[in-house]
């Protein structure tokens, strides 16, 4: 099939953290000449069109998301509602199934890339279309939480179950504390739309698809991908890091002027994403901890002693991380996992790969203090820190590997 081009359809879970990596993958596929039809809630088109690098090959297909009782009028993605309402967004997405099937009958793609829509493989198989579960959740997370070896649908899942890995899971640095295990078990077994639990939705998707793809490579997550593929008895596709192309836009003058006040490689950039909300006391500990480091930091709109800034609106993260003050693409990672797969990902990065430092939290309550934040940053950034030297060396090694892999 060398040199052959394909028609591909994509329908990611309607969360910005899923839509974005699907768009990155669409760009990589279009770069090789493949034609992409990308299904997306109609009102979100304006926010993502700028990221389409191949408009002649990638077509955004607007989908009208049906209203579900309990949702605000016009809510289409997880970004529009608090976390407890995400299952209703999923229910609304499930109701688009007839429209998606009609589109696919007309488009006749060779492949469909999907993730949370567990009903996709059933009718794509009838239409002669191959379904690829393109999972942007790490394979370590899927293998640890949702391995068929746990028999979740038959036995259920408790926090105690998650204190140890499933049978046959690769040797790793993944260790889950009780407060984390209880939270993960609750989310994994909760109703996640249309009366289907989060676990059942994913187990059906993984079991029914034709192939599984992860946004990673063998060098980073090989054992976890292999374990997951064997558990579900599916072919495994390694998509690679899918590093996005550098944005051609430039920072607004006011932000450029702000960042230029600081010396090169000194600014701490704190990002939790648009859907992760810290409680007020933890946010305060975070900012006080950053202040204790003595380094300039960017978190908010409010000025803090001339050194720190807190900003509550949308931030052009890629552009900020390219600025000299923010260590360009050599940014070191201080990890503060909050929910879900962030917990497993943090253990993989701080433990297996040794490319970041995780902020310590209380064993019982999961809370961190300003001193915990300061300690983690200092351990990573102090020139005489042995841990910092090891982490920076590993970070540089993996950075070089990822950049080479993306070319």
Describe the protein's architecture and organization.
This protein has 407 residues and is α/β, with parallel strands linked by helices. It has two domains: 7-238, Glycogen Phosphorylase B (Rossmann fold, 3-Layer(aba) Sandwich), CATH 3.40.50.2000; 253-405, Glycogen Phosphorylase B (Rossmann fold), CATH 3.40.50.2000. The chain contains 16 helices and 13 strands. The longest helix is centred in the C-terminal third of the chain and has 21 residues, at 386-406. The relative contact order is 0.10. GO terms for molecular function: UDP-glucosyltransferase activity.
State the fourth-level CATH superfamily of the largest domain: Glycogen Phosphorylase B
The number of distinct β-strands equals: 13
User: Mind telling me which CATH architecture of the largest domain this is?
Assistant: 3-Layer(aba) Sandwich
Backbone CA Rg: 22 Å
Number of domains: 2
Distance between the termini: 21 Å
Biggest sheet strand line-up: 3-2-1-4-5-6-7
- Using the alpha-carbon principal axes, give the shape: globular
- Helical/strand content category: alpha/beta
CATH top-level class of the largest domain: Alpha Beta
Strand content is 5-15%
CATH topology of the largest domain: Rossmann fold
Report the biggest beta sheet as strand number plus sense, adding barrel if it closes: 7 strands, parallel
- Which regions contain 5 or more consecutive residues with pLDDT less than 50? none
Keywords: Transferase
GO molecular function: UDP-glucosyltransferase activity
InterPro entries: UDP-glycosyltransf_plant, UDP_glucos_trans
Protein name: UDP-glycosyltransferases domain-containing protein
């Amino acid at each position: 099939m060398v040199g052959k081009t394909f028609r591909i359809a994509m329908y990611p879970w309607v969360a910005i953290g899923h839509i974005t990596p699907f768009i990155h993958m669409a760009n990589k596929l279009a770069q090789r000449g493949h034609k992409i039809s990308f299904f997306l809630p109609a009102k979100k088109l304006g926010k993502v069109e700028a990221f389409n690098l191949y408009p002649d090959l990638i077509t955004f297909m607007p989908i009208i998301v049906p209203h579900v009782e309990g949702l605000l009028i016009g809510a289409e993605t997880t970004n529009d509602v608090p976390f407890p309402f995400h299952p209703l967004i999923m229910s609304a997405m499930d109701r688009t199934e007839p429209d998606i099937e009609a589109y696919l009958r007309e488009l006749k793609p060779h492949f469909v890339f999907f993730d949370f829509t567990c009903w996709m493989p059933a009718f794509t198989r009838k239409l002669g279309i191959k379904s690829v579960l393109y999972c942007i959740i790490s394979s370590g997370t899927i293998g640890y939480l949702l391995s068929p070896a746990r028999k979740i649908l038959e036995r259920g899942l408790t926090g105690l179950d998650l204190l140890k890995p499933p049978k046959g899971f690769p040797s790793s640095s993944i260790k889950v504390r009780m407060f984390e295990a209880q939270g993960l078990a609750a989310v994994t077994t909760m109703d996640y739309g249309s009366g289907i639990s989060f676990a059942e939705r994913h187990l059906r998707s993984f079991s029914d698809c034709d192939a599984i793809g992860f946004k990673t490579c063998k060098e980073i997550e090989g054992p976890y991908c292999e374990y997951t593929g064997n558990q579900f008895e599916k072919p495994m596709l390694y998509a690679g890091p899918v590093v996005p192309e550098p944005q051609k836009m430039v920072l607004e003058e006011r932000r450029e002027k702000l960042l230029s006040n600081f010396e090169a490689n000194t600014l701490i950039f704190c990002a939790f994403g648009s859907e992760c909300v810290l409680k007020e006391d933890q946010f305060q500990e975070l900012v006080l901890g950053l202040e204790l480091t003595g380094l300039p930091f960017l978190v908010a709109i409010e000025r803090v002693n001339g050194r720190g800034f807190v900003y509550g609106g949308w931030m052009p993260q890629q552009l900020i991380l390219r600025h000299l003050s923010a260590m360009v693409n050599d940014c070191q990672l201080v990890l503060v996992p909050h929910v879900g797969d962030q917990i497993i990902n943090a253990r993989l990065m701080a433990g297996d790969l040794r490319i970041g430092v995780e902020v310590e939290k209380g064993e019982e309550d999961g809370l961190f203090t300003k001193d915990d934040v300061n300690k983690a940053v200092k351990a990573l950034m102090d020139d005489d820190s042995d841990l910092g030297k090891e982490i920076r060396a590993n970070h540089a090694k993996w950075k070089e590997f990822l950049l080479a892999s993306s070319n």
